[in-house]
Structures are given as structure tokens and as C-alpha cells.
Design a protein that fits this description.
The chain has about 110 residues and is an all-alpha fold. About 95% of the residues lie in helices and about 0% in strands. The longest helix has about 100 residues, at about 1-100. It is found in: Vacuole membrane. One of its GO terms (cellular component) is vacuolar proton-transporting V-type ATPase, V1 domain.
Amino acid sequence: MESTGIQQLLAAEHEAQQIVNAARTAKMTRLKQAKEEAETEVSEHKTSTEQGFQRKLEATSGDSGANVKRLEQETNAKIEQLKNEASRISKDVVDMLLKNVTTVNN
């Protein structure tokens, strides 16, 4: 009778050990799967972010050339405007300076 009780306890212990081992194996498999899924997700996110960055870079690079050209044209137009304005008023400025320099106040 004691021997069958011991045999039952040993069998139960063996069964419990198999259950624990199966649970460990399932846990390790799930952790490995989760790690692979996370790596895939990170890789996809990185690729997506890089593609978005490249699209923005291409979009702004094209605009950059256009912006430089536009700013160059605006700058040249402003320079011409200032030259015209200076030549228009230079005679008046010279006359005013001569008048003030040659006028003696007592």
C-alpha cells in the first residue's frame, strides 16, 4: 500500500515536471516569437520613417532650388530699385550738401 502511494506520488511529480517543462518551452517559444515580431515591427517603422524622410528631402530640395532662384530675382530687382532711387535723388542730395556747406551762419 505504501509502495503504490509512493508510486503515485512519483508519477504525479513526473507529470508535474513535464507540465512545467512544457510551460517553459511554450514561454521560450512565445518570447522568441515576440522578439522576432518586435524586430520586424522596428524594421518596418525604420523603413517607413526613412522613406518619409527621403520624400520630404526630395520635395524640399526641389523647392530649395526654386527658392534660391526666386530670392536671387527678388534681390536683383531690389538692387535695381535702389540704384534707380539713388540716381534719381543724387542731384538733390548734392545740391543740398553744397548749399549747406557753402552757407555761412553768423
